[in-house]
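During the second year of the project, the team shifted from modelling isolated chains to modelling whole assemblies. The rationale, set out in the original proposal, was that interfaces cannot be judged from single-chain predictions alone. As a representative example for this report, we include one of the complexes processed in the last quarter. Its constituent sequences, exactly as entered into the pipeline, are reproduced here:
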Amino acid sequence: MCLGVPGQIVGVDGDVAQVDFWGVRRAVRLDVVDEPVAPGDWVLNHVGFAIHRIPPEEVAATLALYDEILRAAEDDAMRADLCDEIEASSRKPDAD
Amino acid sequence: MLTELPTTRGASLQFRDPARARALLAAIERLTADRAGGAPLSIMHVCGSHEQAIARFGLRAVLPPTLQVIMGPGCPVCVTDAPEVDEAVALAEAGLRVASYGDMLRVPGSGRSLDDARADGARVEVVYGVAEALTAAQAAPDEPLVFFASGFETTAVATAAVLLRKPPPNFLVLSAHKYIPPVMEIVAEMPHTRVEGFLAAGHAAAITGYGVFEPFVARHRIPVVVGGFEPLDLLAGFAKLAELARDGEARVVNAFPRLVSRDGNRRAQQQLWRVFEPVGGQWRGIARVPNGNLRLRPEFAGHDARRRFAALLAAAPPARLAPRSDECRCGDILSGSASPRDCALFGAPCTPAQPVGACMVSSEGTCRIWHEYGGIPRLEIHEAPS
Ligand code: SF4
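Output from the structure prediction step:
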């Protein structure tokens, strides 16, 4: 799916970032992200890759949709896809 | 499935800003008013996530009858052609490890699906993405692992990034990646499809930039608006398209400046086109699309399952046709000339548990989404609780 999922960077190690998704920590690859990123930045991620640094002033508006979807019931299809997007990033805390 | 995330069942759907939603709906009504009595303005989007959001938030129920929003070929799993699935099945049945997204396992080939092969003992694994497939290959370096890769350009970028970082030789890609801009040209010219404006997917455009649609608009004189996924973003996209259509203005408008620029993500594009080249290929149920398929360039032949196992694929027995597949309207739905309601099999016997066609398999397929969210769910505009 092409919805992607936003997350906040908590640490960067080379081409891998630790990203927080609503309290869930995952490792995301930075190979294709469009701008240099640092802890505190928000990025849009797709299948385990950060694809776009979200400008700080756009974070709140971007998160609104996701907050809404994550409030839905567990069997909601969009929520399930969103969780799959988070699952697509590595569980390993320091994936290479 | 993650269980750590919070859930509340039955929360009522709300617009973030009900006043703005009402204003946008009024604008859409006004801009399409002169069509009352005639055919409604027909807008196509090309993204499963757009359809999910439209159906989930019940947007069709609040749109005026003078605007019709249809989903085109926006589901990568659905447009994966049966012979492409047959290739993956043939490799799995020959004893190779094959990994792919869950939905890709269930999508029927001309005879069998990867799930069928798995039931018969083939080694087929579900992964969430290319990185996980790579990890699986690294864990067993002595045998090939074939990643059956689907997805549009947004997803192909990830496959490209992995291939550029020297994966081990046992990591192979069977590419079913597809490229959206060329299929818009095909659909725009289909005799039974009426498209007066395209809503392009915001996150794909975050990669390609909205400039990628300019040649299309110049050739076809159909406006393209890049839109986001939130209900308000969608309404804003529809309103802009209604305005462009009323004024007869064919141009590209970026209604999602939050995340999309004209040039997009150059770094991702460079990696995408270093690894892939566009070639013509069949999209399931639609047509042969010139430049619609993304194939690995010759430099990556060592990781190209199609080249590495060419002899094996050529020797695979021809597939049989699946039962009832001739009644499935998936192809018409993907090309925008039918909706799931035009299919006699929708809901019975075709369901997500027993899908007849690919559009009921994938979470991005129109039939699956409509089944999930009850066709055209109703939604009143709620005031946000204070
Ligand atoms: S409901 Fe099933 S059979 Fe009908 S078009 Fe959709 S996928 Fe095909």
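Chain A touches chain B through 46 residues (CB under 8 Å). The CA atoms of residues 71 and 85 of chain A lie 16 Å apart.
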